[in-house]
Hints:
This protein is α/β, with parallel strands linked by helices. The chain starts with a strand and ends with a helix. The protein has a single domain (about 1-15, about 35-355), classed as Vaccinia Virus protein VP39 (Rossmann fold, 3-Layer(aba) Sandwich), CATH 3.40.50. β7 (about 160-165), α4 and β8 form a beta-alpha-beta unit. About 30% of the residues lie in helices and about 25% in strands.
Amino acid sequence: MNNLVSSRAVGGACLLCRRGAAVSARVTQQRPHPPPLTRLSSRLLSSRQGGTMNVFDRNMKRRQKKWASSLQEHNKYDYLRDEVGSRVADRIYDIARTFPLALDVGCGKSHIAEHLSKEVVERLFLTDISDGLLRQKKESEMPTHCVMADEEFLPFRENTFDLVVSSLSMHWINDLPGALRQIHQVLKPDGVFIGAMVGGETLYELRCSLQLAELEREGGFSPHISPYTAVTDLGNLLGQAGFNMLTVDVDEIQVHYPGMLDVMCDLQGMGESNCVWNRKSLLHRDTILAAAAVYKEMYGNEDGSVPATFEILYMIGWKPHESQVKPAKRGSATASFADLSKISQSEASIKTDNP
Length: 355
């Protein structure tokens, strides 16, 4: 059994839930071709500019997701996305309003929509680069519309949506600042973006174990874990994209597996395998066995299981509008911090005079 343990960095609350059984063999199956989904190839808001870093092979990521969606027991790998999707939905419920039209960027199987009610979101557009995942979207209360589109090129007009959400897909985007600008553009004024993405400390156990094993066995190492965004950079990226009233917080989710190979198999089943351009295509058997031994020695639990840590970064940003609360102008204060001590002293004297 895989154990999923989560603790929120800002609240200290803990959640323990058990998901699924041990990993079984992956089996692909042939399935009939369903009716085609809507495909929007026009790139109205392309943000790719000269000098943009091209770290990830997006075509490879599309193939990985397609392969993951074809697995016979594909639902058993949804535990992490379902958990994070529910937490994104919680943040939507914290906003006391109804959103007539919303967009889910990189929705997968619509892991957020299943936790929402039609009283909160009336209509929802779902986008993903994988048609296989869109065909497997989960049931939800509100009407949904599937659009096969790349997160890096949103095919929507400006000022269209009241709410944009995203969960565990933006860490594969090459031009993250450009993608955030596009999200800002498709939002209506006073619209809100709520997202979750994988942070820089994710899978540090697996990264360190593979690096140590490769250094010992092969005399050097190559990147097997994709680079992730640091939480310290996220606020700046949102601000540069034009968002205001920003909120950024961090969750840490630990999932316990029988061994390192089970971690790697589940990542593959999630469609989360490495897709950087300079990835190493082959990992030697001796290196894998050495890495598994290092993993268990350095991070193993007393019961023989090993943890895998996922750092989840949550972000909220609003598109500016004149109705939003604005900070007071510099020098407009009518009281000084130096007077606070006098106020507290006067309150204390009043309590003394009136026992």
